[in-house]
Specification:
Blueprint (H helix, E strand, L loop, with lengths): L12 H18 L1 E8 L4 E7 L6 H16 L20 H12 L1 H4 L12 E4 L13 H22 L16
Antiparallel strand pairs: 1-2, 1-3
Helix pairs in contact: 1-2
Length: 176
């Protein structure tokens, strides 16, 4: 996602923390994992994956864009994000890790740092695991364990959880 007219001046530690908080809310709301993201001076990259059958990437992105635009003010995100849904080959473990590495190497390609781990505005958002970074040596084996565990938990919840019916709003006719 790029900022409108490639505006800069908004990238700092406080904005990074706000971004992580918003990503965590989007992840919790929509059942998502973000194995890699990278904030750059005029754009950002992220990849996320659903954990549930009803995970909704579009709702997650709408939530993130709405709240991130408030945090970026007076800068704004461009109106249309460049979304790319990974193809079947890109979703395989090694290819998927390569796509994440490509995202994390953005600051290296831009000449800001010599190694992705040195860029302070990148990471992962995995609910319940706040300090795991995708440049850590043990990241991918641990990530896949966490992902499989989260999928199993989501499946158990979907099987066990009864569908709740929302009560009618006050003053509405329950017979409609």
């Amino acid at each position: 996602m790029a900022t409108l007219d490639r505006q800069t001046g908004w990238l700092n530690t406080a904005l990074h923390q706000t971004f992580r908080e918003l990503m965590l809310h989007a992840a919790a709301r929509e059942g998502l994992f973000c194995p890699a993201y990278c904030l750059m001076p005029d754009h950002l990259h992220l990849i996320w994956m659903g954990l549930r059958v009803d995970s909704d990437h579009q709702n997650g992105m709408t939530f993130l864009r709405t709240h991130l635009n408030r945090a970026l003010a007076p800068a704004r995100l461009q109106p249309q994000a460049h979304d790319h849904v990974l193809g079947e080959a890109e979703r395989q473990r090694n290819s998927f890790a390569a796509t994440c590495a490509y995202i994390l190497h953005n600051p290296v390609r831009a000449g800001f740092v010599t190694h992705p781990r040195d860029w302070p505005y990148s990471g992962a958002v995995l609910p319940g695991v706040p300090r795991l970074h995708p440049c850590a040596d043990n990241y991918w084996p641990l990530f896949w364990q966490l992902y499989e565990r989260a999928l199993q938990a989501a499946t158990r919840l979907q099987v066990r959880a009864p569908r709740l019916v929302r009560p009618p709003a006050a003053g509405s006719n329950p017979n409609l």
